[in-house]
Amino acid sequence: MAEASAGNPLPSEAPPQPDDLTLVRRAQGGDETAYDELVRRYQRQIYGVTYHMTSHHEDANDLTQEAFVKAWQALKSFKGDSSFFTWLYRIAVNRTLNHLKSRKFREGRHAMSLNDLGMEAEHHPDLVALVSDKTPRRAAALEELKGKLNAAIQRLSEKHRTVVTLHDIQGLPHDEIAKILNCNTQTVRTRLFYARQQLQGILSDYLK
Amino acid sequence: MKPAPQNPDEFESLKKLLALKRHEEPPPGYFDRLPGEVRARIAHAQASPEPWWRRWLATWDLSPALATSYAVVAVTLVVGGIWMAKQPVAEGGPQIVTTPVPSVDANLTNTIIASNAAPPGLFNPPSLPVQPAEFKK
After folding, report:
1. The pLDDT of residue A199 is above 70
2. Is A44 near chain B, with CB under 8 Å?
3. Which of B10, B13, B61 sits opposite A95 (nearest CB)?
4. Using a CB-CB distance cutoff of 8 angstroms, which residues of chain B are in contact with residue A90?
């Protein structure tokens, strides 16, 4: 996430990486390899936000590519008032919200899943603890919890889903989210509170 | 509406659960292919540029405030237009005033015709009466 954008010095073995602004200036001058580097730098985050908001890989893939193409086309207008990271995220989030508004979700398509979780994540102590120690239904299957969580996220409104995705899943700070969504920090906190409250209510059986 | 004071531990389990979604991954090799696919789409977009109105619509993604202002102007124009169209014509409103044409006296016909002649000017110099010259012997 933002760590990469800061262009912090990396361990001594690694060659120094140019920061975002340097790459942006080069890309604005027509250097496609510089833009390629920016795509590589942020593709995981942009895919992540589109995927968690749509819960659909093909949609997320399309939206991710569109976001990068639109960013390239609008790159000349990037003045550096905000970080490239924030600017790019804003494009991706707005495109995803437009996509969600313009198309009613077909229920059948949401085979959304944590099924794509790697083995490593499935044995993550947090998840194991949640299932085996903290739930009243010790026999509840991991799959059931995954399904419930994803269904609960999809029941949130687009605004609430966005803040949950950006903060609780992607780990962005409130002020960064406020810049991306063009609102104030208090609005972000409020939306986050209600989103969590709703999720907590839906998943109450699993989270006690 | 302000949210109730938040207990830091209130959503702890939920937050841990949500954080696990970070580990969700697309199919293997996806991120190796993505930059190439983006490059191909950019090249395609450059080869066949979108019409101006599509590019204009695309700017809305960058600025929701701009999109909102366009929407407000459009709605105002439509509502204003409908309102204006539905207004009944007021009795005291502007009317076309017509004045009756005065009857023409038959004796004045010549005068009227004469008055229709173009006035003297740059392209129509006044004709001066020319009299034959008389030479005295």
Report:
1. yes
2. yes
3. B61
4. 62
State the CATH number of the domain containing residue A83: 1.10.1740.10
The full DSSP string for B37-56 is: HHHHHHHHHHHSPPPHHHHH
**Tell me: the pLDDT tens digits for B33-82?**
999 999 999 999 888 777 777 777 766 665 666 777 888 999 999 999 99
Q: Is residue A8 part of a domain?
A: no
Of chain A residues 143-172, which have a CB less than 8 A from chain B?
145, 149, 164, 168-171
Contact between chains at B13 and A207 (C-beta distance less than 8 A): yes
- DSSP string across A185-208: HHHHHHHHHHHHHHHHHHTHHHH-
The residue whose two tokens read 């361990």 is A11
For the stretch A150-193, pLDDT in tens is: 889 988 999 999 999 999 999 999 999 999 999 999 999 999 99
Residues recorded for chain B: 137
Q: Indicate whether A150 and A124 sit together in one domain.
A: yes
Is A10 inside a domain boundary? no
Indicate if A101 and A130 belong to the same structural domain. no
pTM for the predicted model, two decimal places:
0.64
Q: Give a yes or no: residue A20 inside a domain.
A: no
